[in-house]
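Handout for the seminar on molecular recognition.
Each group receives one record of this type.
Step one: identify the two inputs.
Step two: read the structure output and locate the region that could contact 2-keto-D-gluconic acid.
Step three: write two sentences on what you found, then compare them with the reference statements printed after the record.
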Amino acid sequence: MKPSILVARAIFPEVLAQLREVFEVDYNETDGIFTPAELTRRLQGKVGALTTGSERIDAALLQANPQLKIVANMAVGFNNFDVHAMTAAGVQATNTPDVLTETTADFGFALLMATARRVTESEHYLRAGLWTKWRYDMFAGAEVHGSTIGIIGMGRIGQGIARRAAHGFGMNVIYHNRSRLSAELEAECKARYVSKDELLKTADHVMLVVPYSAESHHTIGAAELAQMKPTATLVNIARGGIVDDAALAKALAVGQIAAAGIDVFEGEPSVQPDLLKVPNVVLTPHIASSTIKTRKAMAQLAADNLIACLIQGKALTPVNTLPRQAL
Ligand code: 8YV
C-alpha cells in the first residue's frame, strides 16, 4: 500500500501527478485555507504533508497526529512551523532554499525601484486621468544608482540583493546581520558590516530580508523609522511582523520617511487599513518568489523532499535534525 500524504494547498498539476505515482494523496483541490482543526483532521492517517506558509504546524496538531513523519514547506521561510515541537515529535521539517534566491532578490529590486521612482503612485495618477501636462518635479523620486542601500538580513537573498546593488547599480552596500559574512563574501558583495543604528541613519534605501522569529519581530517600529532619513525608502520582502505596519503607515502619512514597498504584511492577507490610505507605498500580495519557473521549482523541491524522506529515508533540505532512529 502506498503511504498517505496531504497536499494542503493547490500545486502545479505535474508535481501533483508525480506525488500520486508514489503516494495516496489527499489533495486540497479547492485551495481553501484549513482552520487548525480542519488541518488536524485532514492529517489523520497521513505520514507526510506538503504545506505553504498558511498552515501552522504546532505541538497540539502533532500530538493529534503521532503517525506524521514529515512536513515539507513550499517556502524557504518556515515560521509557520514550531520546529522545536516537530523535532521533539520526531517529525522532519523541510523548506525550499536556493531555488528562489535570485527570483526573490529580483523582486526586492523591483519593489525598490518602484518605491524610489514612484512607479505605482504615478501610474494611479495617469489612470485616474489626472495627467494634463509635464512638470519639472512631477513624481520626482529618490536616486537608486550610486545611493546607499542598507540590507538587514544578509542570508542568500540579502547577498543576491547586495550583488545586484553593488555590481549592477553602483550602490554603496552596507548591511546588518546576526553574524558577519566572511571576508570573501563581503568582498564579493562589496558590502560593509555596520550596526543597525548606523544602517538606519545612513541608508538611502533600507531592505529587509531577515527571517521571522520572536527576536526579529518589529525589527522596524516607530523608533527605527524615526532614525531613518526623511528621504529614505523601506522595502520589506521578508515576513509580515518584521515591520510594525501601523507605525509604518503613520511614518508614511507624516513624511517621516519618503516611501515604502511592502510584499508581506502582519496578519496577511489582511492589510493594515491605514497602509491602504497612504499614496507613498507600493503594496504587493506576497509575490516575491512568484515566477512560474521558481514556483515550479519550489513545488518540485517540496515534493522531492517528501519522496526522499518517506521512500528513500533522507530528506533533501531538512531544517531540523532528528535524533538517530533506534535500530
Ligand atoms: C512563499 C516565501 O511563496 O519562501 C518563502 O518563505 O515567503 C514565499 O516564497 C510563501 O511563503 C508561500 O509558501
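Reference statements: The first strand starts at residue 4 and ends at 7. The two ends are 23 Å apart (CA to CA).
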